[in-house]
Amino acid sequence: VTDALAMLGGGFAHVFAGGAAFHALWAVLIGIVIGALPGLTATMGVALLTTLTFGMGPNVAMMVLVCVYVGAIYGGSRSAILLNIPGTPASAASTLDGYPLARRGLAGRAMGISTAGSWLGTLFGAMILALFAPTFGEFALQFGSYEMFWVALFGIIIAGSLSGGDALKGYIAGFLGLFVATIGQEANHAYPRFAFGNGDLAGGLGLLPVLVGVFGVAEVLSSMRGPAVKAVSSKIDSVIPRISDITKYWRTIFRSGALGTFIGAMPGLGEDIAAWTSYAAAKRASKERDEFGKGSVEGLMAAETGESACVPGAIIPVLTLAVPGSAPAAVLMAAMMIHGLNPGPMLAITTPEFIYQIVAMLIVADVVKLFYGLVLVKPLLWILLIPRARLMPVVFVLCTVGAFAITSRLFDIWVMLGAGLVGFILRELRFPMAPLVLGIVLGDLLDKNLLRGLVLSGGDLTPFFTRPISMALCALTLAAAMWSIPGVGRLFRRRPAAAG
Amino acid sequence: VGEKAPASPRADLLTAAVLFVLGIAIVAHAFQMPRFVEQSGTGLTAPGIVPGFHGTMIALLSAVLGLRAIRRGGIAARGPATQGGGDGRRLALAAALGVLYAGVLVGRLPFWLASALFVFAFTTAFEWHDDPRRRSRRVAEAAAIGLGTGLLVTLVFEKLFLLRLP
User: Which of A43, A132, B30, B43 yields a CA-CA distance of 20 to 30 A from A28?
Assistant: First the structure.
């Protein structure tokens, strides 16, 4: 414990000494604004800001991106409460009770609950990250190629099973993502796969252009297609959180914090699932069950705590396994790689202090978020009213810059456009995006480890199933896949899950 | 709660057919890739193994999706009425302007000019049918936003963050 505290102190010193903490002031603000604006999500925010960080040192870059991530997940609740439209998918559960509260003239109180819940959630998650990530990281050192193959496959299956309602489409999206990752030269023989003689394709599809396309361009198209956002009430009561709301619902806060962090740590699930699960659990345990959906303080608190606790949770597998826990964490992981930080099991040996630096960054971002949550009320209201016909073309320009900047290839802009159009069509056909992103990010990990495993075993498949950890991961993967088959899941469920 | 309506069985069936063909095409292409047996001795590092696996899974899963769509009436049922024409027009306009900007203008015009033109055209087109009495004011505002975006993005990214722009 003393070592951990010393490392955490070192993490804070690193964050403040390098001047990174200063960047939290603007980065959290940008994150909140991105999150609050319907159509701009946390994933898109982290992807676009990654471009801005190319010229920064790794420390400052990570600070900026962590702040944008933390800010955006919180910012989404503003539009959920005031417009009844989740600013990010993570805030969908917050509309259920946040908007009814606002309609009763309690928009300020709802924002206060959201601020308190979100602040405590991220703090809780950051503590869990500090406590468990190093231990888990050391455990992950036992993972060889066989195990890492299963980790990647488990990520795709669990994300497919749980992230979008239709598991089958989730799996297909995951394998499409894995396929996209195979385009270009492979590692062993530098053979250009699916390049068809094109030099640009032989270089592979850049992760960032694809992600900017899937999350930026596709979202611009989606939001221009739907009906315009309705105006909100501009009269707001006090946004200072009530201590009684926190003390009365401390059990809900702890439960949602734990659930949110756990779901964050599961590959690919993300903040929206964390919020829905926390909300459903709070509803089941609540004495005020009837209030849920009509303006329940407890319901809003649960959703907000859960989604914000998920942020540090989603970073746990990034740091320990190089497997992202959510879509924004996937982009964050890509940014870590761009900046030469190598997340994964070796981190516990090479730079164990990095885990605590991330914890310090999360806590600094959380405090800045609390500050803005309390003071930034009216300006955010104005921002929410920017017409999308004026905002979206600017976002599109930023997407184009983001796709181009990393390698300065016009080809990447075409990749962004293609990924955006395909992503939009897949969304319209109700394919979840989280498994797709996870597939793209984990493709390389799966590819290398499967081939390395086969070479090590001389073509023998048995180590994939007989090594103890491999066996456990294989069983988990199969169980996750079986669970989604209609009929099998019902055998084990006592009653249908009530997700609000 | 919070979920959109599922896609129609007809749409699922068509998607499944397209994805099935894609899966088979991936497998076929992966099968034709060189195996590098001489270099590796075993052929276990053949570049086609992993994409072949992914292609097989895509084909299998889309076959299941197709069968499920047929069971749900995908062959007999017509899809639900298509979304209102306004939605489709807005979508087509946004996509066309986006492709025109990123695919044609960027790289041919200076970036600030291409961006200014795009933002101006986009905003003006989508606000054209709003209150006609204030149209000239909106067009002027769109021009200002376009010019502001073009110049500010160029300034911030190129001068402040030292990034190369297209």
Answer: A132
